[in-house]
Amino acid sequence: MLIEDLDKKTEEIHNIISTNVIKYRKGKGFSQLQLALDIGLTGNAFIARAEKRTNNAHFNIEHIVKIATILDIDIKEFFIE
Q1: Which long-range contacts does 50-58 make (Cβ < 8 Å, 24+ apart)?
Q2: What are the tens digits of pLDDT across the range 20-59?
Q3: Where residue 4 falls among pLDDT bands split at 50, 70, 90?
Q4: Span 3-79: which CATH code?
Q5: Angle formed by the axes of helices 3-27 and 61-71, nearest 10°
């Protein structure tokens, strides 16, 4: 597999994760700010950028584990299209 293909696949996974964070966050009634504070951030700016993938912002594994725990969902749900 070429590096370009790996980069494209990584981008696709980041987009799936962002879409699912939005879905589950809203489904559980959390605002971006509430979720950000609950995972240890000081404001909602990062959550907003990562959900919209602005400037290639994305959730890392630490964010995903914390968000899954806060929202009480299985972490694998973030990776399902």
Answers
A1: 50/18, 50/21, 51/18, 51/21, 51/22, 52/18, 53/14, 53/15, 53/18, 58/14, 58/17, 58/18
A2: 999 999 999 999 999 999 999 999 999 999 999 999 999 9
A3: confident
A4: 1.10.260.40
A5: 20
